[in-house]
Design brief:
Bound molecules: glutamine
Helix content: 25-40%
Number of helices: 16
Radius of gyration: 21 Å
Structural class: alpha/beta
Strand order of the largest sheet: 1-3-2-4-6-5-10-11-9-7-8
Strand content: 5-15%
Shape: globular
CATH topology of the domain at 8-245: Amidase signature (AS) enzymes
Length: 473
């Protein structure tokens, strides 16, 4: 069995027992990439020599010593490309520094290895918005892997990586993890430094791991979290040992079931798998409690005002002067800005910039942006009230299993609606995880379904505890 299909926990044991070396792991991962990346398209690039050199120097006494981790192509790793799945950054940009999350990984001994495909600037939920290539779902190559961290999830699911990092603004770790059948967690906003993560919507973006098991997510969180002075929103709070959540029971824990999340319109197979998962949690001693999150219906529209507004400001830096693509056809400065952006950005990014600029413009600011901020507060308060009654909240991660490639391509609104269950946790800044909970039949295929577990602020521990108990059962 290839080492790329192992968990971090088991690789670490074998490394410490001297059965294998860090070079063996990198070599197996590289072989899996050589063999399968042409069909799955998870990676945009990888530098094997660099990874070998770093693996050979890896300090095995460190907790992640010798473990290669695939990186979504929107986090800076010194000397490597950081394309964000965009033509804008595909030429002329090499990262001059390590992102905060990468520094943390390195100080725990891990080796960043490979750059993973994504929707352009993380805008999308199929990875089809990448300007640099298609990623396919390892469970059915005719289907999307989800997005925007589609490369990160497909790599883990297809055993082209042991574990990866993704980023989640409105569901981009959890939804691809759900559609590919792996574990993905978006921690509390501020838990992991955003320094060096190319910003999409700064008040929502959060980095997190995608792994094969809940335990591996806990292990990675231990070393990714923590204050970084270079990100003013990163939280100066204690980082517990998240692996203490592993192997515990969940007797007496109260599991909130939001009535607004169990609605018609959800794929029948998804609904059945999630209901069976709730029964399973009950059989493990958890107590289901019906709750209400009354502002769920405005979540998607609130997000699609706030996220584009922030994106339109964040993406202003791509002006053809400082970063990336530069038009050669322009005759004057204004044309230079306009043509560089026209040529560098793809259609979804342009749509978001237009939306964002519109809702921030004078005359519309109060009607859209300010109103969305008020709605965001109401959504956060819904959760505060619900968490007076329950310890975690459980729901489907995505209303459907993986779609066929191209199915949502000409219907951005339908694509936006797919984010209905993941967006609220970002708007409220809460930790949320997705883990596999069975399959749904679609076109004769059994496709993975994800169970979402949302926690109280900074209570990743309980989220992981419930997830691990379910996974083990
Ligand atoms: N699908 C959502 C969007 O397109 C979320 C993306 C993300 O979390 N980066 O904005």
């Amino acid at each position: 069995m290839s080492l790329a299909s192992s968990t971090i926990a088991s690789l670490r044991q074998r490394l410490l027992a001297k059965e294998i070396s860090p070079r063996d792991i990198v070599s197996d991962v590289a072989q899996a990439i050589e063999k399968q990346n042409a069909s799955i398209g998870a990676y945009l690039s990888w530098d094997l020599e660099k990874a070998f050199a770093e693996a050979e120097k890896a300090d095995l006494s460190l907790p992640l010593g010798g473990i290669p981790i695939g990186i979504k192509d929107n986090m800076n790793v010194t000397g490597e490309p950081c394309t964000c799945g965009s033509k804008m950054l595909a030429e002329n940009y090499t990262a001059p520094y390590d992102a905060g999350a990468i520094t943390k990984l390195r100080s725990a001994g891990a080796v960043p290895f490979g750059r993973l495909n994504m929707d352009e600037f993380a805008m999308g939920s199929t990875t089809e918005n990448s300007a640099l290539g298609l990623t396919r779902n390892p469970h059915d190559l005719e289907r999307v892997p989800g997005g925007s961290s589609g490369g990160s999830a497909a790599a883990v699911a297809g055993d082209l990586a042991v574990a990866t990092l993704g980023s989640d603004t409105g569901g981009s770790i959890r939804q691809p993890a759900a559609l590919c059948g792996c574990v993905g967690i978006k921690p509390t906003y501020g838990r992991i430094s955003r320094f060096g993560l190319v910003a999409f919507a700064s008040s929502l973006d959060q980095i997190g791991p995608i792994t094969k098991t809940v335990e591996d997510s806990a292990l990675l969180l231990n070393h990714l979290c923590g204050k970084d002075a270079r990100d003013s929103t990163s939280l100066d709070v204690d980082v517990p040992d998240f692996t203490a959540a592993i192997g515990r029971d969940i007797k007496g824990l109260r599991i909130g079931l939001p009535k607004e999340y169990f609605i018609s319109g959800i794929h029948a197979g998804v609904s059945a798998a999630v209901k069976a998962a709730i029964k399973k949690l009950e059989s493990l001693g958890a107590i289901p409690v019906e709750i209400s999150l009354p502002h769920t219906d405005v979540g998607v529209s609130t997000y699609y005002i706030i996220a584009p507004a922030e994106a339109s400001a964040n993406l202003a830096r791509f002006d053809g002067v400082r970063y990336g693509h530069r038009s050669t056809a322009a005759n004057d400065l204004l044309e230079h800005y306009m043509m560089s952006r026209e040529e560098g950005f793809g259609p979804e990014v342009k749509r978001r910039i237009l939306l964002g600029t519109y809702v921030l413009s004078s005359g519309y600011y109060d009607a859209y942006y300010l109103k969305a901020q008020r709605a965001r507060t109401l959504i956060r308060q819904d959760f505060e009230k619900a968490f007076e009654q329950v310890d975690v909240i459980v729901s489907p991660t995505s209303p459907t299993p993986a779609h066929k490639l191209g199915a949502l391509k000409d219907n951005p609104l339908a694509a936006y609606l797919e984010d209905i269950f993941t967006i609220p946790a970002n708007l409220a800044g809460l930790p949320a995880l997705s883990l596999p909970c069975g399959t749904a039949d679609e076109g004769g295929k059994a496709l993975p379904v994800g169970l979402q577990i949302i926690g109280k602020p900074l209570d990743e521990m309980t989220v992981l505890r419930v997830a691990d108990a379910f996974e083990k059962a």
